[in-house]
Amino acid sequence: MIEIVTPGPLATVQDLGRHGYYDIGVGFCGAMDPLALIIANRLVDNDDGAAAIEFTIGSFEIRFEQDTAFALAGADCAVKLDSVEIPPFWSAHAKAGQVLKATAPRHGMRTYLAIAGGLVVEPVLGSRSTDMKGGFGGLGGRPLKAGDRLPLTTPATLPIASDFGLDPRALSSFYEAGYPDEVSVRFLAAAEYSSFEDTALNLFRDEAWTIQPDSNRIGYRLAGPVLDLKAKLELRSHGIMPGTIQVPPSGQPVIQLSDANTCGGYPKIGVVIAADLWRLGQARLGGKLRFVEVSRQEAIGALCDRNAGMAAVFSQIGKSRKAL
């Protein structure tokens, strides 16, 4: 069991999302940075999709009520287990009664805490992810609060003999552990791309957009120049996905994220490629965001590169564990 002492601005139970129910209006949810979630789970020998805690902008504290192993990955918070510092992308042991505390990250937005064996929460529609709009999944379909207690699966043996972690250089080729303050994401042109003025398309690609403070897991609202259509456009509501970039009547883009609505009717100027969605999960409110247009072939190549990078990380984790 673990007890939430301080949840910070937002902490929820998340896994890799809820798939197969879009047709009945149930979104994916899941980790905003799935790569960090997977790495944290690998560090404690969990399945990639095991449920973990996603916490935002640090200020997070828990108390362990049993001996276990845990790992942290994602935003580089300053983390201490009692008085001992725990580096990012690191796996360690905790004893009953010890307190884990994370302060605000130097860079990045979200950190993932994986516990050996996983969290014991009931799956809903095949996932343990928290759907805050629907009010289900996770712990009662809501953010975690002080005093919440989460049961843990107790593995037969702890998966690590001693503490170990990842060398940041193993991540540098594709996954910036330092998360730049200005994030670039690649995008594909969407269905209504050609309906925008040429000037608007140039502005969309050339400007550094500001992520507005009222952004959340549903979507990032961006502030910048107004993107004008060539003519007024009336669209019926249609399916949208995480990564879809819509432009409402204000002319200010909105990027749909993990808790995205399943349908919408605003014109779509682009869609962030799958390989870069995790970057949005670590982009900070008030930070800058740039868009780089790519072809479908380049998007496929980027996904292959990302998968190869993750495979290299998994290989290092395996070698480090064998060396213990």
From TrEMBL:
Protein name: Allophanate hydrolase
Residue ranges of domain Carboxyltransferase in the record: 23-309
PANTHER family: 5-OXOPROLINASE SUBUNIT C
MF-aspect GO terms: ATP binding; hydrolase activity
Keyword Hydrolase: yes
InterPro entries documented for this protein: CT_A_B (IPR003778), Cyclophilin-like_dom_sf (IPR029000), PxpC (IPR052708)
Keywords attached to this entry: ATP-binding, Hydrolase, Nucleotide-binding
Top-rank taxon, per record: Bacteria
Gene3D superfamilies according to UniProt: Cyclophilin-like
Record-linked Pfam families: CT_A_B (PF02626)
SMART domains for this protein: AHS2 (SM00797)
